[in-house]
Amino acid sequence: MTLRATLGRHGNGLGVAHLWAVFELGSSIKRPGKLSEKKRWAYPGKKPKTILIVGVTGAQEMAVATALLRPSPEAGTPSPYHVRALTRDPTSRRARELEAMGAELFQGSFYDMNAKQLFMSGCYGAFINTETYTVGEEREIWAAIKLYEIARRTPSMRHWIWSNLDYGSKLGNYDPQYKTEHHDAKGIANDWLKSQPSFLGDKLTWTSLTSSVYMEMQNSPLCDPLNIRPDGTHIFASPIQNGHTPMIALSDLGWWVRYTLNTREKTSGCELQIASDWVSWDYLVQAFQEVTGKKAIFRRLSMDERFACMSGHNRPVASEKKLGDGSTTVRESFSGFWCLWRDDIIKRDFDWIRSTHPNTLSLADWMRQTNYTGIVGPYPLKNTEDGKGRIVHNKAVTSLL
Q: Do 336 and 178 form a contact (C-beta atoms < 8 A)?
């Protein structure tokens, strides 16, 4: 089921003063087979619901954790949610930032079958964003199904939120030009999820959130200006031609996750197709010039020209794969990605989106809010920050644009 009807906004119903229960802070890092003995929470009168976030130091998950831990805006009370953050490296900068915000760290991987039951234990809900760029399509689909199966067996679990992308191949009538590995992997898993019942009461509800390109990707080699000429003109170059991509601000994505948890009955068994703005590259350039006052142009490129601007596009798109092993390459996957946007294969209902979330950011809003200047950084994606990014500029080519 795809949710398109207008949904009402709900608060958490907490509008009166309560006593806070504050528990001693001990080690908040959990490891497979060894749970920390002490936890900490501050909440008026009752223990908050624990939400597991898988892949927590990625771009989406950092935004989701921030949104869930934020005090309730309607009532000014502490959040009704506690975050359990699954991370491979609890000593990383991003993990420590989450810990400082009050998240509970659990060391492990979404692919660790032996630890899955342990890191879900006691959780009310889960936000699951598996990583195609690490393990590849086949392993991601398998892991998604196994994670769901374990959630169904976990007595405390009530709400499963799948972080989804549009199934590009299916939307494009399985024309191979639209095959995009990271879209198809999530879309296939989402189709499987739709075959499962979605319960209310004391059983497991599922909801999928189908998002898209982050606005924060303006700070990455995918969507940033490929060159800044000596006269200061910023060159936004792409093979998108006259097409569009539904972009989402990460803060909006975090809002949607919290909204979904707050409205379990309305979102049960639904796919919410979300975004913040409908972006063509002409519109991107217009917004950039309006907000920054800097000169910019859109260069329409062919696919060959765009991939000439990238180094290593013959590498596997998944970082754990090996060159020459037959895996989908960066070029193969991102050719499909650009074709989806070029041909406007993916759509959104922005009337429904904005009626549900009236404070949705436009691209210009996001640029103002983040003081975007066209200078790349900080990187939104953890793989890029860690030097494992699959898209790298070929400066010998981009400098000529």
A: yes
CB 208 within 8 A of CB 269: no
Helix (H, G, I), strand (E, B) or coil at 165: coil
Where exactly are the structural domains of the chain? 2-7+25-35+45-214+247-277, 227-240+278-346+361-398
* Lookup result for tokens 């892949």: 55
Tell me the CATH number for domain 2-7+25-35+45-214+247-277. 3.40.50.720
User: From residue 350, how far is each of 6, 123, 277, 305 by CA, in Å?
Assistant: 11, 33, 8, 32
Most distant CA atoms of the chain, gap in Å: 63
H-run or E-run covering 271 = strand 270-273
pLDDT digits (tens, 9 = 90+) for 315-371: 877 666 666 676 788 899 899 999 999 999 999 999 999 999 999 999 999 999 999
Q: Which CATH architecture has domain 227-240+278-346+361-398?
A: Alpha-Beta Complex (3.90)
pTM for the whole structure: 0.85
